[in-house]
Amino acid sequence: MSGFSDVWKTSWVVPRGSVPVIGAFFIILGGEMMENTEKRKVMLSGIKPSGQLTLGNYIGALRNFVKYQDEYEMLVFIANLHCITVYQDPKELKKNLKDAVALYLACGLDPQRATIFLQSDVKEHAQLGFIMNCNSYQGELNRMTQYKDKVAKGETNLTVGLYTYPCLMAADILIYDADYVPVGEDQKQHVELTRDIANRFNNRYGETFRIPEPLVPKVGARIMSLSDPSKKMSKSDKGDKGCIYLLEDLKSARKKIMSAVTDNEACVRFDPENQPGIANLLTIMSSLSGEAIETIVERFAGKGYGEFKSAVADVVCAELERIQARYNEIINSTLIEETLAEGAVKAQRLASRKLEKVQRKIGLEFRKR
Which residues bind ATP (predicted)? Predict the structure, then answer.
């Protein structure tokens, strides 16, 4: 995946992020190989299917994935191993997994242009995850925000899996030598830890991992709760008033937007510090419509919040309606299983190569294969 130098059969090689295809041709001159086409950078990301996907997931991640699949070698995985760091009802988890894949596809991900797979289908993730555990320090994991927040809230019975999941996340990224990892501002810490682990490993054992870069979208990276715009839109919103789901009834979605918490300024402007509710609605509308925030602000100058919210609701509901129609076509088709089967084969081929390289570097593997 990252600069494989082995010549495949004749002069064709395995391009990063895909199965062997024509496209990366090497000219062999004097025992050296020179590439005559530039390989695309690798981007990897995943979403935990721990509940219905939200509008925040869509704007902050899925929508960008659709765009990125034409610009990068795109790998998208459903992070089902990360789900079980806390208890999940097995029946509910199975449903969420299927829904997540169907929604990925309904939102525009194309299995012909992106590799889509279940994390648990590629066993190398967990294997490398343990190796990452052995190359990380307790102090680093103690500083991870999610764990610190739960401890600060007095939560007990936290699982070891929750504590060490940043190491598995590092393995998810490093096993494919991802160049970029699209994340929200609140997730950059995980990519920074991944970079630290990769650099430490490379210093100990020699150059092995590519050092990934976080990619934070300029607009929509973090959609906030409609009921409390100081917090991220989350499936855990109590009463669900602040969260819109991709499969939500359109009337319900519209009602939530019309009831969104704003302020008493009576002026539509982008001021996240003083008018976080309005700023959040502007971000949502801009992200979905493609219209610049400045243009939207100008259009609603002197108009009331009710009219503005109604316009936001129109844009949101139109997008939800389109996604839901496609979802209903996919959910009971064979496309889901076909996509995951094909994606697992592609991903496993790449992951097994990297894991074997890692094992040889640290002395776990000595056999010739």
Answer: 48-50, 56-57, 184-186, 223, 232-236
Let me know if 346 is a catalytic residue: no
Q: Which of the residues 39, 41, 150, 188 is marked catalytic?
A: 150
Instruction: Flag whether 49 is marked binding.
Output: yes
Whether 244 has a pLDDT exceeding 50, the answer reads yes
Name the region of 150 (left: φ>0; alpha: ψ -120 to 50; beta: rest). Answer: alpha
Domains of the chain: 1-39 (no CATH), 42-221+338-362 (3.40.50.620), 238-330 (1.10.240.10)
Q: What whole-number distance in Å separates Cα of residue 149 and Cα of residue 128? A: 27
CA distance 197 to 136: 6
> Is 235 considered catalytic here?
yes
Q: Kindly compute the dihedral angle of the four CA atoms of residues 153, 156, 160, 164, in this order, to the nearest 10 degrees.
A: 0
Whether 235 has a binding-site annotation, put simply, is: yes
CB atoms within 10 A of CB 140: 15
Catalytic residue (one of 232, 309, 346, 354): 232
What is the rounded distance in angstroms from the CA atom of residue 189 to the CA atom of residue 166? 10
Would you call 203 helix, strand, or coil by DSSP? helix
Whether 150 sits among the annotated catalytic residues: the reply is yes
Q: Is 57 annotated as a binding residue?
A: yes
Of all residues in the chain, what percent are helix, strand and coil, respectively (each to 5)?
Answer: 50, 10, 40
**And the tokens for 123?**
């066993």
Contacts of 202-207 with C-beta under 8 Å, sequence gap 24+, read: 204/135, 205/361, 205/362, 206/361
C-alpha span between 183 and 57 (Å, rounded): 11
pLDDT digits (tens, 9 = 90+) for 274-305: 999 999 999 999 999 999 999 999 999 999 99
Annotated ligand binding at 172? The verdict is: yes
**Residue 37 confidence (pLDDT) above 50:** no
Judge whether 233 is annotated as a binding position: yes
Annotated binding residue 236: yes
